[in-house]
Amino acid sequence: MTSRSAAEAEAIARVEHAADAGDVDAVMRLATWRLLGAPLRRDLHLARALLARAVAIGHVDAALMEVALTANGSGAAPDWPAALALLRIAAANDSVAAEHLALLQAMDIDDDGRPRHLPRPERLSGSPDVVRYPALLTPQECAHIAGIAADMLEPATVLDPVKGTPIAHPVRTSHGTVIGPAKETLPVRAVNHRLAAISGTATEQGEPLAVLRYTPGQQYRPHLDTIAGAPNQRVKTVLVYLNQGFVGGETRFLANGLTVSARGGDAIVFSNVLANGQPDRRAEHAGLPVIQGAKWLATRWIRAAPYDPWNAAAVQA
Q: Domain Fe2OG dioxygenase, which positions (predicted)?
């Protein structure tokens, strides 16, 4: 055993000892390690048990994380009613949980968190096939998503193929993050159900909701959302404009010049592949440079088959 691994083992042992003694922060740290898969092996079922223990001791953040994992089925089958019951308990003593509950109560959703009604779609283009759903999200829902993402935003990067270190993304110059399964609040889960409904797909096909912020000069250069050689391809994209009032930042499709200006709460849906599953070049699009203000956008990339966020190359719990 190297000195580094010995030090790591000692640190883990200290945390485990503290958890056994009832230290709620130590219990929470063990739960987080089990979710991330480092430095301990990922075990979602055990993570859920540790979260429940932390909640029983009184850890507020653990309560919200337990709600999220219960709803999206991490470590067990998805259970919206159970998640809602947990949120109601948390809301009695936590203002953040109470805000989440109030946001849910304002939504037109059924007993499983799925939308009862959707806005009438507007077809913007037939080739490529682009459909807009006006006012799909309320201003409060948009603010909720942006608020979760705000503290996690990072510059867009890719790995240098030679050095293996992060370098500036050559296509996307925004700041962004993803709302991973442990941060997928019940309002976000309900929104993801809504995005599945407008795209005619199952919620489980969607990647974690990505949130991008563009400031003046930032853009997303022309690109396709498909991934070369992916066995489980991105077949559809849903873009949700979280705000308006900025200058520039339109979404433009290169095949026909269709240009979509942002209206807060609007969503557009388009297909990325042809009937044979091959990338559809007509879906090439760009986020034009922002000239003034800040553009906030949520993106849900939808796969051909269910997608497991815990087995992605990089997991943001």
A: 205-304
**Domain 123-311 adopts which CATH fold?**
Jelly Rolls (2.60.120)
Tell me if the bond preceding 39 is cis, omega within 30° of 0. Answer: yes
The overall pTM is greater than 0.90: yes
Q: Which residue has the tokens 């909701």?
A: 209
Q: Count CB atoms within 10 A of the CB of residue 272.
A: 22
Taking the C-alpha atoms of residue 129 and residue 199, their distance in angstroms, rounded to an integer, is 12
The CATH number that domain 3-105 falls under is 1.25.40.10
**DSSP character at residue 151:** T
Q: Are 130 and 269 in contact (CB under 8 A)?
A: yes
How many beta carbons lie within 10 A of that of residue 278, not counting itself? 10
Phi-psi region for residue 76, left (φ > 0), alpha (ψ -120 to 50) or beta? Answer: beta
What token pair was written down for 37? 């898969």
Render pLDDT for 12-49 as a digit per residue (tens, 0 to 9): 999 999 999 999 999 999 999 999 999 999 999 999 99
Tell me if the bond preceding 306 is cis, omega within 30° of 0: no
Domain locations along the chain: 3-105, 123-311
